[in-house]
Amino acid sequence: MVTAAGVPAMAADAPQPGNAQVAEAVAALRAIAALKADFVQSDSNGGSVRGTLYLKRPGKIRFQYQPGYPMTILSDGHALFMIDKEVNQTQRWPINNSPLGALLDPNKDVARFARQVPTNDPGAIAIEAKDKAHPEFGTMTLVFRRKGSAPGGMELESWTTRDAQNRQTRIALSGQQYNVNPPEDYFRYTDTRARPHK
């Protein structure tokens, strides 16, 4: 589990320790053209759910949750949609200020506001991305492990997001497959909610 406890805050444009590894991790992230992986999503309340993740550059993602789970999360490259079928509601964020902005936004200079943070696993490299000019965007900590067959020689293993209300969500990946070609429909949001009759 990643922890940033006790790490002093630093200015976004100040020299950061571990700059080389930050740059290496960001380059590896940008080298992922397409990815399919199993995931387990867990939250700070102890809840967890499984599913399949599809990622495609630039800026597209889909969380396909296990059968019976009412949520779908996807990005079409411009906006992130959180679709809750249980309450028939959809939330939308531009990807540049969504909780997953550091992962999805191809225009975001992650290395400028990221820093390496300690982990309790010596084989893992953890990068915390936090835009100090926009604390409302939250914090994202990405965990990588060196792997020669992965793009850039590093495999994205997990990430943890913490929003402005300090709610934390962790995604742990497994069975990563690269250069898959998921259908474009996977990343397209269509509003199928029933419209009230006038």
Please explain how this structure is put together.
With 198 residues, the chain is mainly beta. It has one domain (19-176): outer membrane lipoprotein receptor (LolB), chain A. Helices cover 8% and strands 41% of the residues. The protein contains 2 helices and 11 strands; from the N terminus they run H-E-E-E-E-E-E-H-E-E-E-E-E. Strands 6-5-4-3-2-1-11-10-9-8-7 form an 11-stranded antiparallel β-sheet, covered by helices on one side. A hairpin with a 3-residue loop joins strand 2 (48-56) and strand 3. The longest helix has 12 residues, at 19-30. The protein is globular and about 45 Å long. Mean pLDDT is 85; it is low at 1-17.
Whole-number count of domains? 1
Mind telling me which CATH architecture this is? Clam
Helix content: under 10%
Number of strands: 11
Q: How much strand content do the residues show?
A: 35-45%
List keywords for this structure.
198 residues, mainly beta, disordered N terminus
SSE layout and pairing:
Layout: H1 19-30, E1 34-43, E2 48-56, E3 60-65, E4 71-76, E5 79-84, E6 89-94, H2 101-104, E7 114-117, E8 124-130, E9 139-146, E10 154-162, E11 168-178
Antiparallel strand pairs: 1-2, 1-11, 2-3, 3-4, 4-5, 5-6, 7-8, 8-9, 9-10, 10-11
Kindly summarize this structure in a few lines:
This protein is mainly β and 198 residues long. Helices cover 8% and strands 41% of the residues.
